[in-house]
Amino acid sequence: MEESHRSDGSSTVAEPFRLLGALATVVALGGIAVATVLDPTFSWTGDALSDLGVRERSAPVFNGGLILGGGVGVVYAAGLWRLGDAGDRSVALARVRAVAFALSMVAMAGIGAYDLTQPLHGPAAIGFYALITAVFAIDGIARRRTTTGRVTLAFVPVHVVVWATFLLGLWPVSGLALPELPGALMLAAWVWFVGPLRVVDTARAPT
């Protein structure tokens, strides 16, 4: 049984972390959405999302949203770490999952802290997408006997196919924005709906 569904009272400890997960995703994705509105020249087919981080009108919102969202996400990772203490099926995998997620949030903050013109931007962006794929794989394996765990595991090949098909030139776009979007949305879906510390879990029943 996942920690969020335990009846021994430990699930109540997780509630603040659920709120932090919600805040992290809303701030990061909200910053991206607002930045696209602030930059009328932005093109979903011709630009990368990171182009929003170097343009005068959109840069503060885009970069600030990623930095703040990443910082809050690192604290949310502490909640993932505590799932091992609360009885996750595999303590080791739970801990590795938490560390990988924390590192992905550091990388996300790094995308905002080091804009497209700086050498560390590329490693931060690659690290973010690689790490969230690792989070999905680790979590999917740890919770493979649950429906939400299997959904999470399915995110892995989907994300790999997204980038493989783009790199093979099969997308009718020249920019990175659209290929970048599925990973960000899957991460939000994991935090909100299918992760072990999901925000929307009103039933608190095993899946």
Notable characteristics:
disordered N terminus; mainly alpha; globular; 207 residues; 6 helices
Q: Which class best fits the helix and strand makeup? A: mainly alpha
Please tell me what the overall shape is.
Answer: globular
| Total of DSSP H or I helical runs spanning 4+ residues | 6
What Rg do the Cα atoms give?
A: 17 Å
**Stretches with pLDDT under 50, minimum 5 residues:** 1-10
> Largest sheet at a glance?
none
Q: Give the DSSP E fraction (strand runs of 2 or more residues).
A: under 5%
Quaternary organisation of the protein chains:
single chain
Number of separate structural domains: 1
Write up what this structure looks like.
The longest helix is centred in the first third of the chain and has 28 residues, at 11-38. The termini are close together. This protein has one domain. The chain has helices at residues 11-38, 59-85, 91-113, 121-142, 147-167, 177-194. With 207 residues, the chain is mainly alpha-helical. Helix content is 67%, strand content 0%.
What is the gist of this entry?
The chain is mostly helical and 207 residues long. The protein has helices spanning 11-38, 59-85, 91-113, 121-142, 147-167, 177-194. Helix 1 runs antiparallel to helix 2 (59-85), helix 4 (121-142) packs antiparallel against helix 5 (147-167) and helix 5 runs antiparallel to helix 6.
Explain the layout of strands and helices.
Layout: H1 11-38, H2 59-85, H3 91-113, H4 121-142, H5 147-167, H6 177-194
Helix pairs in contact: 1-2, 1-6, 2-3, 3-4, 4-5, 4-6, 5-6
